[in-house]
């Protein structure tokens, strides 16, 4: 059986046919902490009123200093070829997210006034999925 391993954004190595699986290693997304301040809160430090609107959103975290966890996922494919005369059938079973990881992929980036809802998870990686398929060549 041949294998293919791909580490996205870094390197792609292939040994034989790419029918065995796929490994993904993706960096976490940068975190934000967006707080909204009113004109009354900003005017004393700015020395004037805001030029547009009555509120301003400010990121409280220096860009590219905080990240979500990396996403490491393994997908596998098992396939068997059957030949009957001139017809070829390929049965396949794909298993996505073999380890059934639940890495947080998105969070609430709104800091608000207290930070109570900041970093509350809003999305996790997809659950394990098994897909069964067949390909007919005639």
Descriptive key words:
two-stranded antiparallel sheet; four-stranded antiparallel beta sheet; rod-shaped; 138 residues; mainly beta; 10 strands; single chain; disordered N terminus
What would you say this structure looks like, in words?
The protein has one domain (3-29, 67-137). Helix content is 6%, strand content 49%. The chain is built from one helix and ten strands. Strands 3-6-7-10 form a four-stranded antiparallel β-sheet, with no helix packed on it. It starts with a strand and ends with a strand.
Mean pLDDT: 84
Radius of gyration: 24 Å
Helix % is: under 10%
Q: What would you call the structural class?
A: mainly beta
Overall structural domain count = 1
Could you tell me the number of beta strands?
10
Distance between the termini: 24 Å
Please report the number of helical segments: 1
Which segments are poorly predicted (pLDDT under 50) over 5 or more consecutive residues? Answer: 1-18
Q: Approximately how much beta-strand content do the residues carry?
A: over 45%
Strand order of the largest sheet: 3-6-7-10
């Amino acid at each position: 059986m041949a294998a293919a391993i791909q580490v996205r954004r870094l390197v792609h190595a292939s040994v034989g046919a790419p029918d065995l699986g796929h490994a993904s290693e993706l960096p976490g997304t940068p975190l934000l902490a967006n707080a909204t301040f009113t004109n009354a809160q900003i005017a004393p430090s700015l020395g004037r009123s805001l030029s547009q609107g009555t509120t301003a959103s400010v990121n409280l975290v220096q860009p590219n200093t905080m990240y979500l966890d990396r996403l490491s996922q393994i997908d596998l494919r098992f396939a068997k070829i059957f030949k009957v005369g001139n017809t070829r059938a390929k049965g396949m079973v794909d298993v996505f997210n073999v380890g059934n990881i639940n890495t947080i992929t998105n969070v609430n980036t709104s800091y608000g006034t207290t930070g109570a809802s900041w970093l509350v998870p809003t999305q996790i990686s997809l659950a394990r999925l098994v897909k069964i398929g067949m390909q007919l060549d005639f």
